[in-house]
Design brief:
By secondary structure, the chain is α+β, with helices and mostly antiparallel strands. It folds into two domains: about 90 residues, Tetratricopeptide repeat domain (Serine Threonine Protein Phosphatase 5, Tetratricopeptide repeat, Alpha Horseshoe); about 110 residues, no CATH class. The protein is built from seven helices and eight strands; from the N terminus they run ααααααββββββββα. The protein has a two-stranded antiparallel sheet. The termini are far apart. It binds zinc ion (4 copies).
Length: about 250
């Protein structure tokens, strides 16, 4: 019995070793192959665009490298971080400069430059965190126009169709239930679920007639994010939206 279980353990170990070996081997192949191909060409394209100060184009090349899933050159996260800084994508820039320093450590080719980039990012990141008009990535946000920032929408209850009551499903609306007693005779009882009314308070809206659903436009955040980098100043559009809301409130009363 003991021997048998030993066998099965050693068999499992062997099996694991084979799997491990195969995985390592595939990784090794994957690392060698693309070094000669696509990724390094994209990388040198990106560096060329950076030199010409075409950061948008450089960004496109860097994203292609990342999306390709090919191994990333050690200096690439630094250059990508620098590009993102130039494009005002400070949060993402910080992510990549941190990753660069983490992977390459003190011996990194661009260690000092990366450190000073990290310092340069401090002020703009602080500004993003203090600003109410942008999200954590520094993109401009607006109050959701569908739910007015309420995060949810209320509509007529779908279960009771805004009647507040639903038919009792225990007595099927009759208010009375039948039971057979020990003598096999039918007895009539008042339904205990609805108290004989045949209907009871709607369980979905609890009689409020309204149903709350998460706003789908903003997915319950109350905000809509734009693609534009925030300048951390209240925009005229924001002001006019606020005035419109005040106007709408006055019109209701
Ligand atoms: Zn919304
Ligand atoms: Zn009932
Ligand atoms: Zn209801
Ligand atoms: Zn802002």
């Amino acid at each position: 019995m003991v021997q048998k279980s030993n066998h099965s353990i050693s068999f499992r170990l062997l099996y694991l070793c084979i799997i491990l070996f195969l995985t390592l081997d595939l990784d090794a192949i994957a690392q060698v192959r693309p070094a000669l191909g696509g990724a390094s060409r994209l990388y040198s394209n990106a560096l060329q665009e950076m030199e010409n100060k075409n950061y948008e184009q450089a960004n496109t090349y860097f994203r292609q490298i990342i999306e390709s899933g090919l191994p990333i050159a050690p200096e690439m996260p630094y250059h990508f971080a620098l590009t993102l800084y130039e494009l005002g994508q400070y949060d993402n820039s910080l992510n990549f400069v941190k990753r660069y320093l983490q992977i390459n450590g003190r011996n990194a080719e661009n260690y000092n430059a990366a450190k000073s980039l990290e310092q340069k990012l401090e002020a703009p990141i602080k500004a993003i965190l203090e600003c109410n008009y942008c999200n954590q990535q520094g993109y401009r946000i607006y109050e959701c126009s569908t739910c007015d920032g309420e995060k949810e929408l209320h509509q007529d209850c779908s279960l009771c169709k805004a009647r507040g009551m639903v038919g009792c499903n225990q007595c099927f609306g009759k208010g009375i239930v039948t039971k057979r007693n020990v003598f096999n005779l039918v007895e009539y009882h008042e339904c205990d679920k609805c108290g004989g009314d045949g209907k009871h308070t709607c369980p979905t809206c609890d009689g409020s007639l309204k149903e709350f659903t998460t706003c789908r436009t903003c997915q319950g955040t109350g905000m809509e994010t734009t693609e534009s980098i925030c300048n951390h100043e209240a925009a005229p559009r924001h002001m006019s939206m606020a005035f419109e809301r005040i106007k709408a409130l006055h019109a209701k009363h």
